[in-house]
TrEMBL record, chains A, B:
Classification lineage: Bacteria, Bacillati, Actinomycetota, Actinomycetes, Micromonosporales
The entry's DNA-binding region: 41-60
Coiled-coil parts of chain: none
SUPFAM superfamilies the record matches: Homeodomain-like, Tetracyclin repressor-like, C-terminal domain
Membrane-spanning residues: none
UniProt entry tagged with the keyword Transcription: yes
Superkingdom: Bacteria
Record's keyword terms, sorted: DNA-binding, Transcription, Transcription regulation
Entries under Gene3D superfamilies matching the protein: Homeodomain-like (1.10.10.60), Tetracycline Repressor, domain 2 (1.10.357.10)
Protein name: TetR/AcrR family transcriptional regulator
PANTHER family assigned: HTH-TYPE TRANSCRIPTIONAL REGULATOR RUTR, TETR-FAMILY TRANSCRIPTIONAL REGULATOR
Pfam families per the UniProt record, alphabetical: TetR_C_11, TetR_N
Start and end residues of each HTH tetR-type domain: 18-78
Species the sequence originates in: Actinoplanes oblitus
């Protein structure tokens, strides 16, 4: 996204470059956290960021687009590791993911998305897109390992991502049980059928 | 729970026996569905059921206790199958569970619990208890199969319940992807390492 140089933007924080963009994204998360998805409007974010609504619309076509950007910018897409050992790569991604579940804001936002998605199909699609992005690193790691012959040729990478990621969501949001540090290794051992080092 | 015979209850539906009890539980689900957990109060349920608040309190010690009863009564705990084959038993429980995810009310209620649990620890405990009850049939099936030697002696039944149940929650509430009829067999094959019949 290029920064606008339109003189009409003079004085609006968004035109001051990367720092201003970050400020809008941070304001977006603040609004989301405080008001929930129902209260997430361009107007509310503009007010919070000290920018005009028109300025925000020049950079984001909709409140949905802004929301996706804000989530991505705050909860960085996990890097794709390549240690040469598939179980180590998967462990890195899952460990980063467990850390995300311990973030002060992320679980509450995710729970709000889960609830809102049941009542609003547009928010459901948005949530699906956010999840798709979060699945990507694990999908790359598994597909690559399969193509390298480190995993069975018949392995379904998509189902495997479900099997690896789902227990952490389930423990956190449904069962409300603790996630011990050993759970990453245990899940990997069961799902990939690779024994953890003794 | 014994029905009150106190004359003060005369004319309140709850004292008319099992049908009245069902009416209160149905009213509780209606209130929950329409107002969410935040609006779930004894007063709202009493009004909806045409009973007095005092009468409700004689049967349920708190709105939480009423809520758990209402959820259990509406979404019957799944029966525990015993076909003699662990994969068939697990498939029955998971298939009933997938049906629950297709219920017109259940997913929205579960999503509301997920969201509310993040903001209110008491609701989190209530949700954990509801989940614990829903896990029970699968836990019994797996523990029994392990004790019969149909599954490895070292199998962790609790972790196995997580691995079996979580992908369905995750698909429905996080990834928003379809749950094909084949998914039950695929998940069982991967998690229990038992090949589906050709």
């Amino acid at each position: 996204m290029t920064e606008s140089r339109n003189p009409a933007d003079a004085g609006t924080p968004i035109s001051r470059g990367i720092g201003a963009r970050r400020r809008v994204l941070r304001a977006a998360l603040d609004v989301l956290d405080e008001r929930g998805l129902a209260g997430f409007t361009m107007e509310a974010v503009a007010r919070r960021a000290g920018a005009s609504k028109a300025t925000l619309y020049r950079h984001w076509s909709s409140s949905g687009a802004l929301l996706v950007d804000a989530m991505d910018a705050t909860f960085q897409p996990l890097p794709i590791p390549d240690t040469g050992r598939v179980e180590a790569d998967v462990a890195q991604v899952l460990t980063a993911f467990v850390a995300l579940l311990g973030h002060p804001r992320f679980p509450r936002l995710l729970a709000a998305f889960i609830d809102a998605a049941e009542r609003d199909p547009a928010l459901g699609s948005l949530h699906a897109e956010l999840t798709r992005r979060r699945r990507e690193p694990l999908l790359v790691v598994l597909t690559r390992a399969r193509d390298r012959g480190q995993l069975p040729a018949g392995l379904d990478p998509d189902l495997t991502v479900d099997l690896l990621a789902a227990p952490f969501f389930y423990r956190r949001f449904v069962a409300h049980r603790p996630i011990p540090p050993t759970l990453v290794t245990e899940v990997i051992a069961r799902v990939l059928d690779i024994r953890p080092p003794e």
